[in-house]
Amino acid sequence: MWQKGLFITAAVMSGGLFSAAGVPAGWLFGALLAGIFTGIFIKRFTFEGWPFQAALALVGANIGFLMDTELFAVIPAYILPLTITLSITLLMGLVFGMLMYKWTDLDVKTAFFCCVPGGASEVISVSREYGADDRIVAAFHTARITFFVFLIPLSAVLFYPAAPAGGTPADSIVWNPFIGFPILLFIVGIVIVLNKYVKIPGGALLYALAIGFVVGEWVVPGLASPDYAAGIGQALIGAMVGIRFDRETLVRVKSIGLPSLGILQCFLLLSLLLAGLFTMMTPLPYITSLLSTVPAGAAEMSSTAFALQLEPTLVSTLHIIRVIVLFLLLPFLIKWMDRMILKNEG
Q: Rounded to two decimals, what is the model's pTM?
């Protein structure tokens, strides 16, 4: 236990140093690098269950504080662009799955689940039930998410060089730690309990956003956490994502061979093209569209958007919609895949 505590402390300090140095999404990026380094060269620690949910709730609550009722009037304008980009993402995910099946010695179900675009936790959890090798599925999804979380803050320097370093919005109330921190802890506790007994796709993030919105809109209007409080949540997400990319994950991804790198590059190219399409259909700048559409995990992209102050409430909402839709469509996609397998065997 003390080793986990030492790692988390070191990762958060790394995030703080990166943020102080002015690195885009420094809290998230610095902790991510610390997690990757520890997982590969020292030891892997697991943070499944309530620890990751607590970190996610902390980030979600801080994003929820920034939400306002105007968001609900704006969301309908993004439904059509989201539907188009999500449809293309799902279709290309199937194509990538078939390519991985043909290019590697993986069975078709494992290849398919490796390339299901998004909802990583939900996809990994059900992959074993359908006969896929969940170890390979988890390794590939970990590699994909880590790749994007690593890449997108760097992309922000190129596409959005004026990205803010973070901080509390000017129109928020003065942060009172004797009020703010108990509220945050209360929200985290409620989210963990809700997610345990009422499980839904993206539940922890969705619950935290909703409760944070209610608190920030009506209970303590204008409440917003300072940079360091919100940054710690981002650092926790980065550390817990990065530590998953350990030596075992690296070995499993390497066992797939060069095709795994090819598929990752295909996902990257697809994401860049879809972000451009989304930008053409909406008033969002390119980097915000990329954060909104990239299949790299709702929690991770929401944290990145919050760190860069690039419409985090909108990005979070769009990702939650994407994860829920994907989860609802997953059984139909699996049935389609089963029919394709029977057709090929016949």
A: 0.86
